[in-house]
Design the sequence.
């Protein structure tokens, strides 16, 4: 029996029981015998159910299973408890980075404005013992800017002999893992090499921030708060992390729902938490994207219905760079369903650019079939594993019985759409970081730090004949 998101004919994982207690057979128990006790012992153990898993079957190795078992709140609380003890040699600087798609969840759940929710979330985390709370929007700035330039380069390089289009986004870890572990070539060469916002954020915290603070990366414990469970897998991704777990860009990934659970079991309610302000800007020291230590209080986002906005920003950039066309409003046109939409740039009856957004594995499957047949007409595709996009991540928009909370999701979508948009090109802090941190926009260091490579195994599972 296979789970609803499984991309293989046969699922070797356990089926989910009515009480939703089963997890992957291969994943070891996340609870060690000498479990950490103390003021945080009440939190339930984190478990990833089959319906939460958006990556492909057989995608987790035994080693990854061990590491994945540590991606829960107990690891986070272990560091908090160590920091409360007297042995300063074991203390770590605790940094939490929050994805922008998580903020509408907290705003909707606690009936707050998104700015107030972010400030209270920051205050709550600091009350636990977190030292810095960052916003990952600046990391998405880098990801989008690098994606824009890469698309224009690919457009110029594309030919019958060198087919480098369509370019497929690589910001979604569920989709990337499926492409690498199941599809392989000829799909992986189409993946954009720009790192995802989470990967860029890991480099910012463990490299730039660490050096600004005169700390070794191992002295920083970096937690990502994200809307989906696949971000946990992304933290383990080969080529992004080193062989030492202490040097990972993200040491622990917690979903928005797991943070809400911590809040629910805490003696301090979110409404009573100390208010701390938020900034989207900065990663210059003392102006670090730090919620609370900057004058900027308004939450900002990129232009995208429920994502980091790669499609919209790349489309506008390409229209200007390639055809000298200024596009202010990007109009989506739904095709097969609301999760497969296209955007075109036309002039004198000719289609100059044809972009698409493909959300959910049913649309991804159809896209891959057409791509392999050579009948896929798009230059660029924003690919997300979750139907409805990142706001619908399985780590936040769910009811207690594991179904999508549609009412909550609609509320989150309304909140997210009302957040002011800031184009990545307008961030002076990003431009400053290109110079101070990366030695220039097109430097070898920028290429090495902001781009990645993808696995392309020769023998991948053949799953394209699945009928959805």
Sequence:
């Amino acid at each position: 029996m296979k789970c609803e998101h499984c991309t293989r004919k046969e699922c070797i994982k356990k089926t989910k029981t009515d009480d939703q207690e089963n997890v992957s057979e291969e994943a070891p128990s996340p609870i060690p015998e000498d479990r950490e006790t103390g003021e945080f012992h009440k939190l339930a153990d984190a478990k990833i159910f089959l319906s939460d898993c958006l990556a492909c079957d057989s995608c987790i190795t035994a080693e990854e299973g061990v590491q994945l078992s540590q991606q829960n709140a107990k690891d986070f609380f272990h560091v908090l408890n160590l920091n409360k003890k007297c042995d300063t040699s074991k203390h770590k600087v605790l940094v939490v980075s929050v994805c922008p798609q998580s903020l509408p969840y907290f705003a909707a759940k606690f009936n707050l404005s998104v700015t107030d929710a972010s400030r209270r979330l920051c205050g709550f985390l600091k009350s636990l013992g977190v030292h810095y709370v960052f916003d990952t929007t600046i990391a998405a700035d880098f990801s989008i800017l690098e994606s824009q330039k890469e698309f224009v380069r690919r457009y110029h390089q594309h030919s019958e002999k060198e087919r480098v289009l369509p370019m497929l986004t690589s910001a979604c870890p569920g989709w990337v893992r499926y492409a690498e572990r199941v599809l392989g070539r000829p799909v992986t060469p189409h993946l954009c090499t720009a790192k995802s916002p989470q990967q860029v954020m890991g480099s910012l915290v463990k490299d730039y921030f660490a050096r600004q603070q005169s700390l070794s990366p191992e002295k920083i414990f970096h937690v990502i708060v994200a809307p989906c469970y696949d971000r946990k897998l992304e933290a383990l991704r080969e080529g992004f992390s080193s062989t030492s777990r202490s040097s990972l860009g993200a040491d622990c990934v917690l979903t928005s729902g797991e943070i809400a659970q911590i809040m629910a079991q805490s003696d301090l309610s979110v409404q009573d938490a100390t208010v701390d302000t938020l900034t989207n800007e900065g990663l210059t020291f003392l102006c670090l994207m730090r919620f609370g230590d900057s004058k900027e209080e308004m939450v900002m986002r990129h232009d995208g219905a429920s994502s980091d906005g790669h499609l919209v920003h790349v489309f506008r950039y390409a229209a200007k760079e390639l055809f000298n066309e200024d596009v202010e409003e990007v109009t989506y046109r739904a095709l097969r369903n609301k999760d497969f939409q296209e955007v075109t740039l036309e002039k004198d009856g000719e289609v100059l650019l044809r972009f698409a957004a493909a959300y959910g594995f049913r649309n991804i499957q159809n896209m891959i079939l057409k791509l392999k047949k050579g009948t896929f007409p798009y230059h660029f595709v924003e690919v997300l594993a979750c139907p409805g996009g990142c706001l619908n991540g399985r780590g936040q928009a769910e009811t207690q019985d594991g179904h999508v909370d549609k009412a909550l999701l609609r509320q989150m979508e309304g909140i997210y759409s009302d957040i002011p948009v800031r184009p990545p090109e307008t961030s002076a802090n990003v431009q400053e970081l290109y110079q101070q941190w990366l030695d220039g926009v097109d430097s070898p260091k920028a290429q090495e730090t902001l781009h990645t490579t993808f696995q392309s195994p020769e023998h991948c599972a053949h799953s394209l004949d699945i009928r959805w």
Q: What stands out?
A: The chain has a mean pLDDT of 79. The CA atoms of residues 147 and 300 lie 20 Å apart.
